[in-house]
Prior knowledge:
Elements: H1 10-27, H2 31-59, H3 62-72, H4 77-103, H5 107-134, H6 139-151, H7 155-168, H8 173-184, H9 193-208, H10 214-226, H11 230-237, H12 250-276, H13 281-293, H14 297-310, H15 315-327, H16 331-337, H17 351-361, H18 365-376, H19 385-395, H20 399-412, H21 418-429, H22 433-445, H23 450-460, H24 465-468
Amino acid sequence: HTSFTERSLYFGICGLALLLPVIVAKLLWKRPVAIVAGLAVFAVLLMMGAGTFTRNSLWQNEMLLWEDAAAKSPEAPEPFIRLGEIHYENAQTAYTESQAFARQEERAAASSRREDAQREFGFAQSFLQKAVEITPDDARLRNILGVTLAFMNKREEAITMLTEALRLDPSLDECTVQLASLYEYNPDDPANLEEKQRALDYFRRAERLEALEPGARITYALTLARTGNVGGAARALAPLDPANPNSPAAEPMRQLTPLLEQLQTAQQEYREVETASAGSKESILAQIDYLLADGQTLQAFYLLDRFVRYNPDDFTAWLLMGLTRARVGGAEKFIAEHPVAPVAPEGAQPAWLQLARRSAESGRWDAVRTYLEFAATQSDVYASPLVTFSDLAIELKQLAVASATLTELTKSQPENPLPWLRLCDIALQSNNLPQARRYLDEAERLGAEPALVASLRAKAGETPEEEKGRSRTILD
């Protein structure tokens, strides 16, 4: 009410339209002049009608309307924000449809809609970046742009944008969840422990903000489990009623069940040993094992550090110390302090391989690699450390970790068929038969054992002629 708007002209325009015929009738009494004036008025009305028609056509299409506004007002953020939001919504729709087609195994349709989604995300990014340049302090705008960048696989740019959005507005719960998801999985380094710990910090923050949707809560729980906190994972799933078979948490809880059983077993063994011989070596080791299984790494380390000083040759203590060091990112320090492994019990796996397995079960893949590569310098028993590493990852269903390592092997050992065979096995587990066949063809070209090739070929099938000409591509 205090500023001028075009609406304030409406009644005035109506009055002028009513007044003009009166003026013409009173003043233009000569017929020739009246005809000329009438034609002029008709031309003006026709021109104005055409303009109105054009304007209405423009206003019927929201996209065209905002594009016109952006062209006329390049310094105003609103048109760019709205255009970015429209393209972002279109992209989300296309992405959701592509996932639905993929679940129905309609690959051509899924691929087409994924391309549509990426194109729309690209348009959204360009408009939203322009809007951010105009209004750099808009947290919500940065959040939308960050999510768009994440969908476009521009992970580092997305993290930077979302972090700034959260700095501007710490209450942005969606931004917190998105950052947690981005840190939880890094396709270039899926075993990165530091980023997983950072992801947990954001998940905990989102939980405090009561912003964890079921999907994000499940990811939070599985991340806790992969970092060794199985009890915390079970508690994170509890609000979703995992005992209900129809709950989305039912399957994740089923995956956690063996680990929870190990935790309960460790707790029970500790209680039994403590009751039978409190304060004994066996009791202390059982307590340490239970604390590690429950994710209480710091308490376990204090007990273990004192125990190892008095029992330096105890194999179980050596194994638990290596696991504890792995959990706090100190694998190299453990190797420096305990380079010689005690003799493993008869009939058990070699010492370093046992330590690598326990570290892998706790999700400490950086430590697994460090231990295996060091062990390979000590004995031929640990030959091909990266192959052993990938085998452990495949066994524990960490296919992204295995795939990244095997991809590295194909580059460092280009004549070795074994990584290609392992990649074929991963592709088969993912039900990606065309990719499995390409990996298998490469392994066969490099002279893989015919019996292994034949067994995998029975699962993957023969390579069709139209696939043979394609370049081989390694997919994460």
